[in-house]
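Troubleshooting: if your tokenizer reports a length mismatch, compare your output against this known-good record of 195 residues.
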Amino acid sequence: MKYEARTFNLPELKGISPKQVEVHIKLYEGYVKFTNTLRDTLADLRKDSEKNAYALGEVMRRLPFEFNGMRMHEYYFEQFEGGRKEMPEGSLSKVLSEKYGSTAEFLNHFKAVGSMRGIGWTILAYDPVGKTPHVYWVNDHELGQLAGLPILLAMDMWEHAYMVDYVPADKVKYVEAFLSNVNWETVENRFSETK
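Known-good structure output:
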């Protein structure tokens, strides 16, 4: 089975240009391509796993980066499909308010994490065991994920996500643009699937 790059039905985004989206989609397509390439390479190397043990190890270590790069970008782009929609008053806003005091305070916290120095991802996930949301930072796609937690909202903070429109010193403007385009019904639906 080969992974195929998804096509996203994106509206015109406020503060994120069509050129930025085009460049970012191409990068996503590269993750899909290299996920498939690495899977094919693994199949070839396994034909003589003893001889290829070192190469197998290196390819196995690279696969999670490419795979998670593919999957994280799918979370990212699908959040914009259907156009901006406000966060509904529902179960997600309730748990966010319980933990952060209000949805406005949650957004302030999410923005603060996203505006930290460095590259990576700002993630909102939900722990169905602990019954609590978590906002956290992921440096590389495969490092820092909280094991088993479903991702509700993923904000790409690598420079490729905003450098066409914003310089690194202005990334807080990108954070605002990102949040101004989120279809919160998608996020709410992801939350509903955790139950």
